[in-house]
Amino acid sequence: MEEIKKNNEEQDVQMVSEPIASMQFTGLSPAQIEVLNAVAWLKSDEEIRELQHVISEFFANRADEAMEQLWSEGTWNEQTLADLKKAHYRTPYEKN
Fold first, then answer.
1. Rounded to 5 degrees, what are φ and ψ at 22?
2. Comparing C-alpha atoms, which of 78, 76, 59 is closest to residue 67?
3. Smallest Cα–Cα separation from 75: which of 64, 86, 87, 66?
4. Does residue 31 sit in helix, strand or coil?
5. Dihedral sign from CA coordinates of 6, 59, 28, 40
6. What's residue 89's pLDDT?
7. Model pTM above 0.70
């Protein structure tokens, strides 16, 4: 079971790093430099996973705040949620 968990974590890291590797380098922003400076201190895989968790929580909180704003502005409401439950946004594929 521990081996499966480790393989899943390695796949998660690979899923994140592959798109980054294919990006064209145009220089680093101040935020990117700050993150690199922080990452330089990480010594173990556990610390990397902890940082990934913190970053995930950061973006989840930002998404929650954005949704709260949409809700308070009236852009989203109960009807919007009901409509989303019925929506089908999948790409239609033709069977051959």
1. -90, -5
2. 76
3. 66
4. helix
5. negative
6. 82
7. no
pLDDT at 37: 92
SS3 track for 39-56: HCCCCCHHHHHHHHHHHH
For residue 3 the two structure tokens come to: 């081996």
The alpha-carbon radius of gyration of the chain (Å, integer) is 19
Which residues in the chain show pLDDT less than 70? 1-23, 96
Tokens of 80: 């919007």
Q: Are 77 and 71 in contact (CB under 8 A)?
A: yes
Distance separating alpha carbons of residues 62 and 56, to the nearest angstrom: 10
Q: How far is CA 29 from the centre of its chain?
A: 19
